[in-house]
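Entry: G-protein coupled receptors family 1 profile domain-containing protein
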Amino acid sequence: MVAFLENMMTHASILIIMAISFGRFYAVCYPFKAYSGSNSRNKMILIAIMWICAAAFAVPFFLMAETQRQYHFSYKEDVDICTTPIDSGVKRAFVVVIFCVFFVVPFAMLIVVYVVIILRVVKDSMSKDMKDSKKTQSSDSHKQLVCMLVGIIILFFVCLLPFRILVLLTIYSPHALNDLDLEHYLNVMNAIRLLVYMNSAGNPLIYNIVSVKFRTAFRKALGCQTNQYKEGVRLYTMTHYSYMHKSESNGDAI
């Protein structure tokens, strides 16, 4: 189950990052289309599809896992351990496919999507059609958005690349880590595995630090009340494309 669950969670994390990234892309580049096509039902269907895909690509690891009798250095005796041997051409090819589908392709797509978003927000921040007050607000939001996007890409690359390299190294060069003693070998393995979890844990922290909308939704999920709709208060999102404003004349939300 460990091999299955770890891979499923990693795949799901990447797919969720991709979904959020494309959501940002549509919100910035096609705000009206993003607003009109956004509803809870579609989001729930998308989440279900992502988890099904993540589980489907992790099932082979569950099938490949097996128990072996090996000597345990701490217990000083032979014990049953779970391993996932990649000992055939088909298994190696599958691992390479996983590396491409859940790292190389998403990383390339994230870079393209975020470069387009950054160029768009920079272009709009230089627009002469906005008033000075809106332009100042938009400029601050753009800086926050760019920082968030760059942070996500760096976190994604730094946290997941060592794990993917280790997997490929173990398959195609199994003796590469033989020079390490047991303590250093375990330290390297544990550090790389922790990085995978840090990627999943780091993304919501980045969103929480930068995004007002994320913090508001998080407080709402915890049941905390927030005073968002005070008279004359505007709650801006990450960009100037959409904002909520309580009108002073008729009290309607725009």
